[in-house]
Amino acid sequence: MAHTYAPSVFARAARAARFAAAGIAATLLHWACMAALIAVGSDARLATALGALAGAALNYPLQHRHTFSSTRAHGSALPRYLAACAVGWLANLLLFALLHGPVALAAPTAQALTTVAVAALNYLLYARMVFHEPAPAQAAG
């Protein structure tokens, strides 16, 4: 009977920490782009949308190599990543628009809350859809 590999609690915690570190780098780029665009007069919704795209471009190699140590070929992982990014990008835009618009939070507060929610969504998408690799089968002993 074959058994599936289940990562230890420590391995999962280490991966979550690597995800957070890579995500922080991508988020800092997102927010820097957003702040720069707002500073020159861009609409906050456009600024966060464009900032998210910049962050996503940095995030892919960090998540592929650093967080998930994926051996999945880029030809397979990148389209999955782009699909996950589309979901995350849309979630970011919609939640930010809600919090900054009808809820009337300041742009930095709305983006901070949005970032936390989208980060949780992205982790699930990356772990389950993008960089997930079939568990190695172990021979029964």
UniProtKB/TrEMBL annotation:
Chain ranges of the GtrA/DPMS transmembrane domain: 18-131
Subcellular location: Membrane
Record's keyword annotation contains Metal-binding: no
Membrane topology: Multi-pass membrane protein
A family per Pfam: GtrA_DPMS_TM
Ranges that cross the membrane: 19-38, 44-60, 81-99, 105-126
UniProt cross-references to InterPro entries, sorted A to Z: GtrA_CellWall_Glycosyl (IPR051401), GtrA_DPMS_TM (IPR007267)
Main location (coarse class): membrane
UniProt keyword annotation of Transmembrane present: yes
Record key words, sorted: Membrane, Transmembrane, Transmembrane helix
Domain of life per record: Bacteria
Similarity-based family: Belongs to the GtrA family.
PANTHER family xref list: PROPHAGE BACTOPRENOL-LINKED GLUCOSE TRANSLOCASE HOMOLOG (PTHR38459:SF1)
Protein name: GtrA family protein
Organism: Thauera sedimentorum
